[in-house]
């Protein structure tokens, strides 16, 4: 944790020199290049995605933990630390990185052909092509198995029909990885926006993740050559394997947002005077700060343990759920508690906690809602599936 007073367990001593240097580099980039703009982006509900792509690419943040094809091949822990520093500015920015690297690029890297990898991954790693990942539909979110989007084979082509909803970056994507039901399972397709029958209208009026572009993907008899189908998977294991990756990034990212709330709030309580002395001098304030710091520190240690397991290739999906559920719940609690300490000032964009809290409502929901992760953990504990 770069802000050392908050590192109550000497967490940073558990990192390698290389991991510490990477965290610092990400923190510098996030603080100097992203943070000065975040209030405006959030306020105007926009993100200069096409400009940010090459900047993140140059930094090695896109497909950071993937090997080859222009990707840095960093460790899972290094990738987690990067997510933490980026989300300390805003969850929308970490989403940008997650969707590109952990979802769209990972899908191609893991399930794609050599030709598909050569064609798309280097440009995506450089941020020259932006990717999105279309799984959710208007009537199929937590239960992707019930998706209605259909792909029907017609000679050497597939004809796709259906609608994907809540898709990060779909209106600006050059590459859309879209999942559809087929005659014998589920398939992933790499779509490009100029394909006939493809459109991606933007979703407006969001109260959360405003510094992130969200849209639909509408497929109206969209004809796709078979060479654009991901050849190595024909079941839901395809998209769900990708979700493990993005959920892992959130474990770290959400704690970055929580840390920023706490840093902002400790600073505020030291300068705000109430009843003749600074707010930080009251026992109730210190109890709140202490409780939040303890939860944040415990959660960061958990993230590191899960990261080390991932680097050893031993991280099971239900363990990812433990981290995703914990980090998002703790981060949201911290953001809300921090907001109380800021009083009325806390409802403005000048201070980050309410912006983070609003964002964290999405983070709690996407990549599997809190309830889905409870059910995944429940299944691991009892051996019984309670989804249906
Ligand atoms: P189920 O029958 O259990 O499994 C179907 C197939 O998938 C395999 N599988 C997994 N594989 C890898 N990782 C996992 N975590 C897996 N979970 C299951 C399973 O072995 C099976 O394989 P096969 O080959 O035998 O067919 O599936 P189910 O239909 O019962 O669903 C289980 C459930 C509910 C846990 C799953 O559907 C789920 O996770 N639902 C939540 C959906 C979700 O998280 N959507 C996220 C959409 S993407 C997004 O939100 C991006 S936000 C982006 C941003 O950061 O901005
Ligand atoms: P629902 O599935 O309708 O759930 C509603 C409520 O019911 C939740 O509380 C849920 O936990 C509960 N529930 C559902 N099933 C059960 C059950 N069996 N038992 C108990 N409770 C249950 N998706 C993508 O594919 N790609 C993206 O890039 C993407 N980006 C997103 C960006 C944003 C900003 C947001 C908000 C969402 C994004 N999503 C994306 C969609 C996201 O993954 C879904 O919103 C999420 O999976 C939940 O689906 P839903 O909204 O349909 O909720």
UniProtKB/TrEMBL annotation:
Reaction it catalyzes: a 2,3-saturated acyl-CoA + A = a 2,3-dehydroacyl-CoA + AH2; glutaryl-CoA + oxidized [electron-transfer flavoprotein] + 2 H(+) = (2E)-butenoyl-CoA + reduced [electron-transfer flavoprotein] + CO2
One Pfam family, short name: Acyl-CoA_dh_M
Top enzyme class: oxidoreductase
GO annotation terms (biological process): fatty acid beta-oxidation using acyl-CoA dehydrogenase; fatty-acyl-CoA biosynthetic process
Positions of the Acyl-CoA dehydrogenase/oxidase C-terminal domain: 241-381
Enzyme Commission number, as recorded: 1.3.8.6
The protein's name: glutaryl-CoA dehydrogenase (ETF)
Entry's family note: Belongs to the acyl-CoA dehydrogenase family.
Pathway(s) where this gene product acts: Amino-acid metabolism; tryptophan metabolism; Amino-acid metabolism; lysine degradation
GO molecular function, one term: fatty-acyl-CoA binding
All residue ranges annotated as the Acyl-CoA oxidase/dehydrogenase middle domain in the record: 132-222
Organism annotation: Corynebacterium anserum
PANTHER family, per database record: GLUTARYL-COA DEHYDROGENASE, MITOCHONDRIAL
Key words of the record: FAD, Flavoprotein, Oxidoreductase, Transit peptide
Top-rank taxon, per record: Bacteria
Annotated ranges, domain Acyl-CoA dehydrogenase/oxidase N-terminal: 16-128
Cofactor(s), by name: FAD
